[in-house]
Amino acid sequence: MPAEILPLIYALVLGYLSGSIPFGLILTRAAGMGDIRSIGSGNIGATNVLRTGNRPIAAATLVLDALKAVAPILIARYFWGEDAARFAALGAFLGHCFPAWIGFKGGKGVAVMIGSLLALSWPAGLIFCAVWLLIAFTRKISSIAALTAAATAPIFAYVFNGERLALVVTGLALLLFFQHRENIARLLKGTEPTIGSDKKAS
């Protein structure tokens, strides 16, 4: 195996191990709220944690899910360079969405994508957050906000950092769309619940 490939593999594995930490599940259990997978969408992400009504725990889940992408990216960049940092981002996203420890059923990836973008290109990350907030406040549907922000993210990644980052962000966006496939089906049917609704969503 070529020596230059090994750091990329290390970064990918590091990202996966960090990304697969199910903070939503850990925090809700620690708070005595039971198994987050038994309510709402069964998702371990911050949006589903918010359905418990505990906003501080939901906010902590959001921050920690973002940080579990930031940490391996910064470590990979320090030791192995920028290409490795991008592989760490991909690993973190895969780990969050498909964590081996809980049957490969994780979150949808929005918080991890935020953390990845902020660590890889903070201007693109801030724009992602701004787009998400704008759509969330105007349309009141979390999935539309996430999908819109993800769809535009590769454009800003290209503008600020060029083709390599844009390619990686495109991959993250496609994975995020895949994780939101049930939401997309509900959007097409007009049955996707709004933010704050008690209906089952993700």
User: What separation lies between the terminal Cα atoms?
Assistant: 41 Å
Tell me the number of helical segments per DSSP (H or I, 4 or more residues long). Answer: 10
Class computed from helices, strands and strand pairing? mainly alpha
Oligomer: single chain
The percent range for helix content is: over 70%
Can you describe this structure?
There is one protein chain. The chain has 202 residues and is mostly helical. It has one domain. Helices cover 71% and strands 0% of the residues. It contains ten helices and no strands. It has helices at residues 6-19, 23-30, 46-50, 55-80, 82-97, 110-120, 122-139, 142-161, 163-179, 181-189. Helix 2 (23-30) packs antiparallel against helix 4. The model is unreliable at 198-202 (pLDDT under 50).
List the helices and strands and how they pair.
Blueprint: H1 6-19, H2 23-30, H3 46-50, H4 55-80, H5 82-97, H6 110-120, H7 122-139, H8 142-161, H9 163-179, H10 181-189
In short:
This protein is an all-alpha fold and 202 residues long. The chain is built from ten helices and no strands.
